[in-house]
Every structure is written in structure tokens, then in C-alpha cells.
Amino acid sequence: MTTNGFDEQALDAAYRKALAAEKAGRTEAAATAYRACLGIDPDDHVGARLRLAALGVGETPSSAGEAYVTTLFDQQAEAFEDILVGQLGYGVPGLIGETLARLGFEHFDRALDLGCGTGLVGTVLDGRVDEMLGIDLSENMIEIAFDSGAYDHLYIGEALGFLEDFDEPEPFDVILAADVLPYLGDLAPLFSLAATRLAPRGLFVASTEALADMAGDGAAKGANAETGFAVGSDHRFHHGESYVRAALERAGFELVAFEPITVRMQEGEPAPGHLFVARRTGG
């Protein structure tokens, strides 16, 4: 079957073979099978590039890839909140709301929620924003966010493309990105585009997963001191604190807060990360 432009049965077979080899500890066989997945589907709906990087046998990609993220969250949409919030204790949206209130940022005229998912951030800030916009790659996620009633406008699309091409010139007072950066390696394009869409002194608020948590982890083989990010065994990007701080400064932000958080539970252990609030500098 080739409804997506590739042989889905062949991809499924190769992917299952790769997973079995990886689980058995046969890294070379797993890598061969993941590369076969890429040969069948260069757009990489199954995240083979991330898995190769996590195994330490492939280059670290600059992002998780649009096809993979869309597939992942379309599949997870219905059970997303139950699994992530109910079972894994994900609480970043609530931490964003609490942190902004503690810092004295109680109300915003216009906000953009990147990677809005099912609308958790919008729900937390409901009543504190006059006009809330959200965007997500997953149509299934957007449908659930719509039902939340927390958004004035919702869009299906990729965050960087939206920031670059959105045809409304009115700037945002705050741009939010909860659990978005773990699907991006290179943060420079996102930070730069976010700055161009913010009003002077506007805020950029986002969460990361910490690179330091990967110390001694075999899945950190893809870590690169020059890039400051790597793919973890969870197949998500982990970012070094100094890398994030430097990328924000280069994009024209000054930090208001940069705080350690627990993002969620991962295999029974707290997954450490950071929550930052950055202010656009200049006029």
C-alpha cells in the first residue's frame, strides 16, 4: 500500500525489524534496518534518523522532522492528555502559568501558542489573554484544542513556517512553546523567528529538556559540545543550558527567568529540564 507515497507495508516490516534488533542489543542490525526505513520513506514518518542518532551511529539531525512529529501526535491525540498528564505527570503548562503570574505577567493582549497540542497552555492562560492563537502540526490535536474553547484562532502547520509566513503584521505580546524544543535540535531558527514576531519587550516562554541528564547515558553518543544538543534514549532532543542561553542572546533576547523544572516522569524517573522566560530587546 502506498497511500503516503511509499510502501507502508515494507516500511512497517523494516521498522519492526529495527525495533526488535535494538531491543535485543544488536546495534549494527538495528542501524541497518533503520537505514532501510529511510530508503523506503525518505520523509521519515517513523523517526529513523532520531533512532540512529540515539544509537550513536548516525548524524544528529537538526529537528525531529515534520513527517515524524505529525504522525506521532496524530496517533497519540486521543490518549495524549491521559498518558502525558495523567500517567507521566507532565505539568509544564501549569508551570508556565504559575511562573508568569509570579513574575507579574498577569495579562496579555495577544498570544501565540506554538505546538499547542490539545490546548493545555491555552486552557491554563484562558481569561488572561485577549486574543489567543495556536498552531500545531497534528490535525487531530487541533480538533481537541478547538473543543477546549481556549483559542480564538487555530492553525494546522509547522511552527517555523508559520512564524515566517503568517500574513498578519500585528505582533504578539507573548509566544509560548511548551514541550516544543525537545523536537528541535538547532534552536537558532526558532529563536530568531520568534523575535521577529514579538512586540518590543514581548516575551518568549518555552521549556527544554536538559542535556546534563544524559551524562553517562549510552544514548548520549550523539552529543556534541559544539552544537550543545543531542538526541536522548527517549528520541527527543536535550539541550545544554549554556547553549540555550547563548542562542537566546544571539536572537536578541534577555532572560527574565531560567529555572530548573521536572518536565515529566521518564521510565519512573524525573525528567529534568528548564523553563525560561525571555524578553525581546531593542525597539
Automatic annotation (TrEMBL):
* Keywords carried by this UniProt record: Methyltransferase, Transferase
The GO annotation for biological process reads: methylation
CDD domains, per database record = AdoMet_MTases (cd02440)
Among InterPro entries, the record links this protein to:
SAM-dependent_MTases_sf
Q: Where are the transmembrane segments?
A: none
Quick one: signal sequence residues? none
One Pfam family of this chain: Methyltransf_23
Can you say what this protein is called? Methyltransferase domain-containing protein
Taxonomic source organism:
Jiella pelagia
- Lineage, opening ranks: Bacteria, Pseudomonadati, Pseudomonadota, Alphaproteobacteria, Hyphomicrobiales
